[in-house]
Design brief:
Layout: H1 5-21, H2 25-52, H3 56-62, H4 65-89, E1 93-96, H5 109-120, H6 135-141, H7 176-184, H8 194-197, H9 217-226, H10 233-237, H11 239-256, E2 261-264, E3 274-277, H12 283-293, E4 302-307
Helix pairs in contact: 1-2, 5-9, 5-12, 7-12, 11-12
Bound molecules: heme C.
Length: 312
Amino acid sequence: MVFSRPVVICFLGLIAATMFAMPNLGLAVLGLVLLLVVLAFAAGMLSKSMGKGSHTWHDKIESRPLAFSMLTLIAVVIGGLFELLPGLITEKKVPMAASGEMAVMPYTALELAGRDIYVREGCYVCHSQMIRPFRSEQLRYGAPSRIEESMWDHPFQWGSKRTGPDLARVGLKHAEAWHWDHMWDPRYGQDFSLDSELSIMPAYKWLYFDKVEIGVVADKMSVLRRLGTPYTDDQVASAEKDYRVQAQATVAKLAKDGKTHVIVTGGGEGGADLRVDADPESEIVALIAYLVRLGRNDVPVGFEAAPIQGGK
Ligand code: HEC
């Protein structure tokens, strides 16, 4: 049964489709040709067998529920193994860049707060953070995601659905000011492309008003340290101070691009316009700091000798 024609055709089809998706253009063209040949062959085979009603190969599995369930289970387990194995066998050491720094730096206090807002608001419901090694993805989103790029993410934000674009490297695409406008109103922002005007992404206006509880960020860093993120004692101790410094710098960058406030039309007393200034303590500043950092990692050239403490 394993070598029956439908199984062989599916196998060849999968190989052809994978080749078609590869970044190498020659391989992709070859994959396309192979895919068309396989499809034509399958179509021919189907039209022949449909006439005769000869469906013996799948009758064999479908009439044996237990065997069918077992085969399904085996298929699922194989898929699961392919997902699990890389995490289990890869070196649990800290990947280092040529500069001598960690290739993927743990989030700063401000970015960490921003990440938690990202998780709280469910951005992952519409956005993935994993660029697959396919041509179409690389053209749109940039270099494929590497395994160590999400090693400090607990939990990781790979996501499983893309209603909006992948955000794994969005930090290389937009500056702070762009996010300031986009998060306020992704749908009707005047300065955006036609794409944004048609966006189904909701606005996140409350982030401009609500404040981050900065006092707990150090605790979050301690918890992450237990999970294996290499924060130093100094980083945990100065979390609040570092938070405020980076938040001020982010607000200064926004101001440089003319983003000092937002206006809520008719939101003030007596129907007057309400002006909300960019506040370093606001949630939007933390979220923006997180977004502009996404994908800004170095390529590892080696590993730190010390293995990661704790964690997975
Ligand atoms: C209902 C689905 C949905 C949700 C929820 C959502 N987005 Fe989006 N997002 C989109 C769509 C669709 C686009 C593409 C159109 C646009 O730019 O608005 C987009 C675009 C973006 C972009 C621009 C990406 C690029 O490549 O230019 C960013 C950044 C972004 N979203 C961030 C967020 C953040 C942060 C959250 C959570 C606070 C969020 N989104 C929640 C659907 C969503």
